[in-house]
Design brief:
With 1506 residues, the protein is α+β, with helices and mostly antiparallel strands. It has 51 helices and 57 strands.
């Protein structure tokens, strides 16, 4: 019958029940609802099954009713099941008129009676009952005036009392019904025909214009049914003759295989029953002869039973029946169905046929449409996308629970499922859709008629399984591959998702759209994977659906990225045929796109669809061919980002240069001293030039080994060669690359200077040796070693700092679990087996067990278990999240206290953790290295020097040819033997080379590294670790500072901020509440519990608390336990107070000598406590029942929360605190507010950053309420709340694209991608390792004022670097004209030592200038406070703009009217005045004000401030 007409049943999952009283409460409350006939709640299964009237209730309203009672109600299947009703006919026995009104009201109040129709004229009543709740006999007992209509009873005796059991002797009839126009026509027919005796069920289809009727032919005829439909005004024709639905070939096989065993009497059988068989049943539950006659009369009416003999003594029944029409199992069910339905029947002798063997073949010739049996049809559904047995089990588990499904057998090998179902309750299409909703592709097999199956006795179940597989093979259609191809897959980039509920919203709504088979959304990657039917919908339409839900969506064109790629090592291959064997076997598999095996390397490269097949299946396939296969181990470190190679090469370069540079410097210093000595001699003793030369050449180093080659020049040359070619090798490479890109940087300048100095010196030396010169030539062999040492040192230090970045990735990757425990479970979630596998082998759809303390190896959905999970990895929030069935979990997060079974949804590179690794990687590789100031300078300086040197060369050549006299006068090594032209050119060259060499900026290379080294050293002394020069140079340019909230602005750990006592202190004191609560929470692992215990211990000044027993925790609700032994604790505390009181009293009474008065006053001071003390002694070791938790927990335990308490909780929640209620012995007695408190210096730090002209933004993964509350406390006006790690990166990028330099301050793993992306990442030292590694600056002290200090230090350092450049260049700029010979006419010629001295002086002055940074002092808190206090004012919430996610559409506070604004501003200014006064008068009183959240609420906090 139409479910809207009858009675429906729905099963609702109920979470949160703890005991039988919860069960009783639900049954009582829901049972009272109008239209509810029956409620059964199971504590074990956590379900409530409700039978109700669909006209008065719906599954949704029932779910809401349970929800309103404080439990979590989940409606897994919103489609209710129809409940079969029976009709009982009653007639009046007595002659007077029975009291019909009284009868009607009595019966309607009875559970299980759904309807009553009374006909006073005919003195009858028709009562509709639910047979599983009430039977006819009970109805008679209720109304003694009426009796059962015996005729009806006879007729109805064969009916079934349980609607789910197959009826004996039912026949199905299909009729064509014309003239139906709307649903009221269908319900009219269903209503009218459904009430006829003998009609079991009817379903009328408006679309097909047909009626399907199941009736009992011994109670009603086809003609009668047809007449009744026509009487209702609709022409009806029998579409198919009433048929006992056709048997499939499989059932014939089954009938043939039924074991045959003859009984004695069956040989003397009437020949007309050639097909007769006999079966003997054992019947339990018969009490008297009426039971015997009941069974005999019920079965003898069945047309296929020829005789039945029931024996009460032997508890048996011998039935002769027609074996071609019915099975023993059907007869067994028919006996069990006989009213009152309490018989238990079992078969003892098999079905025995009188057929001779020849006639057994005639069984196949029997027309297949004359066998009657229970109404069960069978269909085969092709299922694509199953990867392993867990898929098989999950499909079988879900589908077997669907209405009308009798059994299901899924075969992974044949990729199909065989389902036995009741065609009136479900259809193949419904089942196909149900399988698709689970994420598999399902298509109906190509058979035309559903096959009917006869249920077999349970002993034959193994046989059934075997035949099912045979059947499945027989039925797999050849074209299933083409049908599978009708589904396509697309990827859509989705923006604007902020949390798991966004994901659920998209998945839920997309699945409802026509043509969409499955949806999987990855939150971190911002990507949706959709499988759809291209005939119905297309990717742009799907993207439009997502946009309609309020998210941004674009179709990703390159769909290859969804394919899995597997690299395997295959051992045991010997030749090309092995390769071919593996490749051909794998490519035949569904879901494998491509496979290539290399014999030489033993490697296989496979591309596959992770939805259909997984790495374990592929390895298993290869192993089944007789080879060994294993994964290629991926390098889990981020080696491509570490700078190990560069660090190694620069260190080598520095050490080589240093080794050879030290002797060169020694020689240089010696020569400088000697030259200076000679100069003073020349000046004081007026020595002639010749004498000078003689003295010079007589020095040891200037002695000539060969003519023109002195010891000094030889040593310098030998020491310079290795430096020039080994130490400077990398400089040459970098210079070459720079010139190739048409730029001139520091490397080009260094290479140019050293190469020219070396080449020129070498040429000069060779020329001197060739000319056998008396005077040693001036060489510049000392330049390259000096330069290379300083610059290689700078580069080496810089790369060490850069190398730290990759450690962040290595740390992140180490968070990933390496192994996973994969389990197989049966349909009741009972573990069958478990195995440890490598995390890379986990496939989508696998079921994984995660034990307490374990890491989640992949992203997934919980299918069983309750636990708290630490997800600070993603959200940055310290509070663990409750997980239950249906919750999503994140790879890398840590399971805390319960064991969970999860189904993998995202594996490998799709997991959230992999996405964070990818974000950090991208941020680090995409962050452009800042161009060093020295490089920039070199870009201008190199061409300038080269031009000047060329100009010098040309000018001297011209001067030489015009006036040779000048050259002759000033050329020191002029030799008459050389030609004039050669002399001029040599002189010009010497001048231009000198220009190049003096200009060589040795100190330019030192200017930055020395300042950076001193700056980072000073930073480290002040608790600021700066990683290298880049962050130091960048920080001064920062325009925007972005703060994370948890652990950065706030402490990151929950702290008790207020305890409110809700009862009078004479009933229970505050200390007693603290002692009880502290003891109870000491067993809790929850951070809130730890915070409460810590607070109670501090307040009571004790380390030891009472005893806690019967401790129970309900995740997401609270705890309950019993507490004893707190009296000693209180007594100790009271004695301490007594002692203080006595001391105070004696101080007060210091003049009075009377001792009595002092004790008296002490008694006056705390008389109440001594009372409490004696009271506690009296109640020594009293036991208290304690409940601590949220509203729901209190309501569930029967406590009423009044409006004041509720308002108080709401107010705390509005301020971003967590409010927890405490009940002792079923009395609400305390409210505890717990919050993550703001760091005391946060407000000041934000204010100073703003006063430095920086924009300050708060960005957090937390909700907007808490974010607004925290922002208002610290004075930040721009807030981005509910932001994912990827959104933080995007926001930083967005700010950078606006041309702003961004500093990001954070502490969590979720901040690490943003820290890496920001121009300057600043990590709090107490934060996670990953954040510390990803950041450029680490604040060792957990102090936000160090953020200000780091920016300040950067500004000072950059200033110092600029001064260094001035020192570096000033010597060069003065030296160049001298070297070029501009001042020759006035006798100023550049001596070689002067060049060296200038270089040394510039280097020394640069180093000294850098050392001045050592004097930097970090401003103290007091200094900052003094400057800031006058202007600091708290922000009112209306001034704060809140943005959710990263969009700039802010959720501003409601617009205030002009008057409101004036009032607010005046209140704020008065408040800031008051706070200024307070802060001047006393620090103590300003404390509450500093932490209060809103204007004017400090007073309320003061009452109970802690």
């Amino acid at each position: 019958m139409d479910p809207s007409m009858g009675v429906n049943s729905v099963t609702i999952s109920v979470e949160g029940m703890t005991c039988s009283s919860c069960v009783w409460t639900i049954e009582q409350q829901i049972g009272k609802l109008n239209g509810v006939h029956h409620v059964k709640v199971s504590l074990e299964e956590k379900t409530a099954t409700i039978i109700y009237d669909p006209k008065l209730q719906t599954p949704k309203t029932l779910q809401e009713a349970i929800d309103d009672m404080g439990f979590d109600a989940i409606l897994h299947n919103p489609n209710p099941f129809p409940v079969l009703t029976n009709t009982v006919f009653l007639s009046a026995i007595a002659s007077p008129t029975p009291p019909w009104d009284h009868i009607q009201s009595t019966l309607l109040k009875t559970k299980g009676v759904t309807d009553i129709k009374i006909s006073p004229q005919q003195r009858t009543a028709v009562v509709t009952i639910i047979p599983s709740l009430v039977n006819a006999n009970q109805i008679i007992e209720l109304v003694p005036d009426l009796s059962l209509d015996t005729g009806t009873l006879e007729k109805k005796s064969g009916t079934c009392e349980d609607y789910s059991m197959a009826h004996a002797g039912e026949v199905m009839l299909k009729m064509k019904v014309e003239g139906m126009t709307c649903h009221s026509c269908t319900s009219t027919i269903e209503g009218k025909i459904g009430k006829l005796q003998g009609v079991q069920r009817i379903k009328v289809s408006l679309d097909n214009q047909e009626a399907t009727v199941v009736y009992q032919p011994h109670l009603i005829t086809v003609e009668e049914i047809k007449k009744q439909i026509e009487a209702a005004g609709f022409p009806a024709f029998v579409k198919k003759q009433p048929k006992y639905l056709r048997l499939g070939s499989i059932d014939i096989e089954r009938l043939k295989n039924t074991p045959v065993k003859f009984s004695e009497g069956s040989q003397q059988r009437n020949p007309s029953y050639t097909n007769d068989s006999t079966v003997t049943f054992i019947i339990d539950g018969m009490h008297c002869k009426s039971c015997v006659s009941n069974i005999e009369s019920a079965l003898s009416t069945l047309q296929y039973v020829s005789s039945i003999v029931v024996s009460l003594e032997n508890r048996s029944a011998v039935v002769k029946y027609n074996a071609s029409l019915v099975t023993p199992e059907t007869l067994r069910k028919a006996i069990e169905a006989v009213s009152p339905g309490q018989y238990r029947v079992s078969i003892i002798s098999g079905a025995e046929s009188t057929l001779n063997s020849p006639s057994s073949s005639s069984l196949q010739k029997i027309p297949l449409n004359i066998v009657s049996q229970p109404l069960t049809q069978e269909t085969v559904i092709n299922i694509d996308g199953m990867t392993c047995n867990s898929c098989v089990q999950s499909i079988e588990g879900v589908i077997s629970k669907k209405a009308g499904v009798k059994s299901i057998l899924v075969s992974l090998a044949n990729a199909n499922g065989t389902v036995e179902y009741d065609p009136l309750l479900t259809s193949p299409e419904t089942l196909r859709k149900a399988i698709e909703d689970m994420g598999f592709d399902a298509t109906l097999s190509g058979t035309n008629e559903p096959l009917v199956v006869i249920a077999q006795p349970s002993s034959e179940t193994p046989h059934l399984t075997a035949t099912n597989e045979f059947y499945a093979k027989m039925m797999t259609p050849i074209h299933s591959k083409e049908e599978a191809k009708t589904s396509s897959k697309c990827y859509i980039q989705v923006t604007g998702m902020t949390c798991a509920s966004c994901v659920a919203n998209i998945e839920r709504n997309l699945r409802r759209e026509e043509g969409i088979y499955s949806v999987l959304v990855a939150l971190m990657a911002g990507k949706a994977e959709v499988r759809y039917n291209p005939a119905v919908t297309q990717p742009p339409m799907i993207a439009e659906f997502i946009r309609e839900l309020g998210f941004g969506a674009t179709v990703i064109e390159n769909t290859d990225e969804g394919d899995g790629v597997l690299e395997l090592i295959v051992r045991g291959m010997t030749c090309a045929s092995c390769v071919h064997k593996i490749e051909s076997t794998l490519t035949k598999h569904r879901g494998i796109f491509y496979c290539s095996v290399a014999l030489a390397t033993n490697k296989a490269h496979v591309k596959y669809d992770p939805e259909i097949i997984g790495p374990r299946d592929i390895i298993h396939t290869i192993e089944s061919l007789g080879f060994e296969a294993s994964l290629v181990k991926k390098d889990r470190s981020a080696s491509h980002l570490d700078h190990k190679r560069e660090i190694r090469q620069w260190r080598r370069s520095f050490l080589v240069s240093l080794f050879f540079c030290i002797p060169v410097m020694g020689l240089m210093i010696y020569m400088m001293v000697m030259d200076h000595h000679l100069a003073t001699l020349h000046h004081n003793q007026n020595m002639s030039q010749e004498e000078m030369v003689n003295v010079h050449t007589s020095m040891f180093l200037e002695r000539q080994i060969l003519p023109g080659l002195s010891i000094m020049n030889l040593l310098s040359f030998l020491l310079c060669v290795p430096v020039q070619f080994f130490g400077g090798w990398y400089f040459y490479i970098h210079a070459y690359k720079a010139l190739k890109h048409k730029t001139a940087n520091m490397d080009v300048l260094i290479v140019l200077a050293t190469t020219i100095a070396f080449a020129y010196s070498l040429v000069i030396l060779l020329v001197a040796m060739y000319e056998r010169a008396k005077v040693n030539p001036i060489t510049f062999f000392d330049t390259p070693p000096m330069l290379f040492v300083f610059i290689a040192l700078g580069r080496w230090l810089e790369h060490i700092a850069k190398g730290k970045t990759s450690e962040a990735l290595a740390k992140l990757i180490s968070l990933q679990a390496t192994e996973a425990t994969i389990v197989t479970i049966d349909s009741d979630n009972i573990l069958l087996s478990e195995e440890q596998v490598d995390v890379e082998l986990v496939q989508r759809g696998d079921i994984i067990k995660v034990v307490p303390g374990g890491k989640f190896p992949v992203d997934g959905r919980v299918i069983e278990g309750h636990s708290m999970v630490d997800e600070s990895l993603i959200t940055g929030e310290a509070m663990p999240v409750a997980k239950k069935s249906g919750s999503t979990v994140i790879a890398g997060s840590i399971n805390q206290n319960g064991s969970l079974l999860i189904r993998a949804t995202h594996v490998g590179a799709d997991t959230t953790l992999s996405q964070i690794v990818k974000l950090v990687e991208e941020a680090q590789t995409s962050k452009a290295p800042i161009q060093q100031f020295a490089d920039k300078l070199s870009g201008y300086f190199v061409p300038f020097i080269v031009i000047i040197s060329i100009v010098t060369l040309l000018v001297w050549i011209i001067i030489g040819f015009l006036n040779f006299q000048v050259v002759e006068t000033y050329f020191a090594g002029y030799n008459r033997s050389i030609s004039r032209t050669e002399t001029i050119i040599r002189f010009a060259f010497q001048a231009s080379i000198t220009v190049l060499c003096i200009a060589c900026p040795c100190s330019l290379g030192l200017a930055t590294p020395t300042a950076v080294m001193v700056g980072t050293g000073v930073g480290a002394q002040n608790g600021i670790l700066i990683k290298g020069g880049e962050p130091l140079e960048m920080a001064h340019k920062v325009k925007v500072v972005v703060f994370d909230k948890t652990g950065t602005i706030t402490h990151g750990t929950p702290v008790v901020s207020q305890i409110k006592v809700l009862v009078e202190s004479n009933r229970i004191s505050r200390n007693k509440i603290l002692a009880i609560v502290g003891t109870a929470e000491s067993h809790s692992e929850h951070p809130l519990g730890a915070a409460i215990t810590k607070y109670c211990k501090q307040e009571l000044d004790t380390e030891v608390l009472g005893t806690c027993i019967d401790f129970q925790v309900v995740p997401g609700c609270g705890i309950c336990c019993k507490v004893t032994n707190i009296e000693g604790l209180l007594r100790k505390n009271n004695w301490r107070i007594e002692e203080n009181n006595i001391k105070n009293a004696s101080l007060v009474q210091i003049d009075a000598s009377n001792e009595q008065s002092s004790t008296l006053s002490s008694m006056i001071i705390d008389a109440q406590l001594s009372n409490a003390l004696s009271y506690s002694e009296a109640l020594n070791s009293q036991q208290y029942k304690v409940l601590i938790g949220n509203r729901e927990w209190m309501t569930r335990n029967g406590l009423v929360i009044n409006n004041d308490i509720d308002d108080s909780m709401t107010e705390h929640e509005r301020r971003g605190r967590t409010a927890v209620l405490v009940a002792v012995d079923d009395v609400l007695c305390g409210l505890i507010a717990i919050a993550d408190t703001v760091k005391p210096e946060a407000e000041l730090a934000v204010h100073i950053l703003k006063s430095m002209g920086l924009e300050v933004i708060l960005m957090t993964g937390d909700n907007s309420k808490t974010a607004r509350s925290i922002a208002s406390q610290v004075g930040i006006t721009k807030v981005f709340a509910e932001v994912l790690p990827s959104h933080k990166v995007a926001k930083v990028k967005q700010l950078q694209e606006e041309g702003k330099q961004v500093a990001m301050v954070g502490d969590g793993i979720n901040d690490s991608p943003a820290l890496a992306m920001a121009n300057v990442g600043i990590a709090i030292g107490t934060g996670t390792d990953v954040a510390i590694e990803a950041a450029d600056v680490v604040l060792i002290r957990n102090d936000l004022l160090d953020v200000v200090a780091s920016i300040d230090l950067s500004r000072k350092t950059v200033k110092r670097i600029r001064i260094n450049f001035v020192f570096a260049l000033i010597y060069n700029l003065i030296g160049i004209p001298i070297a070029a010979g501009v001042f020759m006419p006035i006798g100023l010629v550049l001596q070689p030592w002067m060049g060296s001295a200038a270089m040394a002086a510039s280097s020394v002055s640069v180093v000294l200038s850098s050392l001045f940074l050592k004097l930097y002092r970090k401003p103290t808190y007091e200094n900052y406070e003094l400057h800031a206090r006058s202007q600091m004012g708290r922000k009112s919430p209306s001034e704060i703009s809140i943005h959710v996610g990263i969009d700039d559409a802010s959720r501003n506070s409601p617009k205030l009217g002009l008057l409101d604004r004036i009032v607010n501003y005046s209140r704020a200014s008065i408040n800031s005045l008051l706070s200024d006064k307070r802060s001047l008068n006393s620090v103590g009183t300003s404390e509450p004000d500093k932490h209060s959240l809103l204007v004017g609420d400090c007073r309320e906090d003061d009452d109970t401030a802690l």
